[in-house]
Amino acid sequence: MSDAAIATADLTKHYGRVAALEGLDLEVRRGEIFGFLGPNGSGKTTTIRLLLGLIRPTRGSATVLGVPVGDVVRSHRHLGYVPGEVALWPQLTGDEVLRLLGNVGGWVDPGFRAELIDRFHVDPSERIRSMSKGNRQKVALVAALMGRPDVLLLDEPTAGLDPLMEEQFQVVARDAAARGQTIFLSSHILDEVQDLCDRVGILRAGRLVEVAALEELRRIGATILEVVFDGEAPALEGVEGVAGVEPMAGVRGGVRITVAGEPDALIRRLAGHRVIRLHTVEPSLEEIFLTYY
Ligand SMILES: Nc1ncnc2c1ncn2[C@@H]1O[C@H](COP(=O)(O)OP(=O)(O)OP(=O)(O)O)[C@@H](O)[C@H]1O
């Protein structure tokens, strides 16, 4: 029996010829916030559905706090879940949904539920049917969090949230982890998880290609800088951390610089020139893969 919050061994799911997930070996520690990153279709949702026991693996196994995920009656005593596509009863109000799910899920701390409703600005009297996508997602988040489950499986939990609510989510997630709860959250946006997660796993076409701690992630995390100089752009190739330089089309003195790791040496070099515009662009996951591999 594993002491990990989540442990998978050779976990694999094939749909016909499509390998949605291939040979996943992963251990998530108790109290950890683990980010599960990958582009669309890389197998994040498949992994979460396997952990929930909603689908059966083609091969391999997984446990939640030592309980095999196929034993759903026992495993779900420890689990909270927010799906990527929230489906709730449209005719019920937020409050009715939370009461119903509270009864199904077991123990709920009413004071904590009220705090969550407040934090996420949920209007409990509104019917689900008339709520926006983001507001429905917030109800699902409150429902998953209110019973303080040992392990939370969150599929792109902040996808529909505005920045303020995303911040609230981060506060609540950190509190939960500090209490010893484990959070497994999927995302296709590096930026969204890098401030929150202790470690991230990077999934590509069904395979885990990297598990990295935050410091390593900074090394992986490429930054793209668009700089416009007053006059000709200086030569920047060879400056420490600079992975690529290309001219910006149609902008005199403009270059697009890809920096892998710390931008310190580049900034020192830039300081010797007159810079009239500077803009940072967050790279996509694909761009990070390209820089890193
Ligand atoms: N029920 C299914 N039948 C057939 N193929 C499926 C099924 N579910 C998922 N797949 C395929 O498995 C692969 C992984 O899908 P999955 O939904 O796990 O990706 P994802 O990383 O969650 O993507 P997204 O970010 O778009 O939600 C995709 O190629 C998808 O088309």
From TrEMBL:
The entry's family comment says: Belongs to the ABC transporter superfamily.
Tell me the domain of life.
Answer: Bacteria
Per the record, a Pfam family?
A: DrrA1-3_C
Which SMART domains is this protein grouped with? AAA
Looking up PROSITE patterns in the UniProt record yields:
ABC_TRANSPORTER_1 (PS00211), ABC_TRANSPORTER_2 (PS50893)
GO MF term list: ATP binding
Keyword tags: Antibiotic resistance, ATP-binding, Nucleotide-binding, Transport
Would the keyword Nucleotide-binding turn up in this protein's UniProt record? yes
Spell out the InterPro entries in the cross-references.
Answer: AAA+_ATPase, ABC_transporter-like_ATP-bd, ABC_transporter-like_CS, ABC_transporter_ATP-binding, DrrA1/2-like_C, P-loop_NTPase
Membrane topology recorded in Swiss-Prot or TrEMBL? Peripheral membrane protein
State the compartments where it is located: Cell membrane
Q: What is this protein called?
A: ATP-binding cassette domain-containing protein
Location of the ABC transporter domain: 6-230
Q: Which Gene3D superfamilies match?
A: P-loop containing nucleotide triphosphate hydrolases
Q: Write the signal peptide boundaries.
A: none
Write down the CDD domains for this protein, in alphabetical order: ABC_DR_subfamily_A (cd03230)
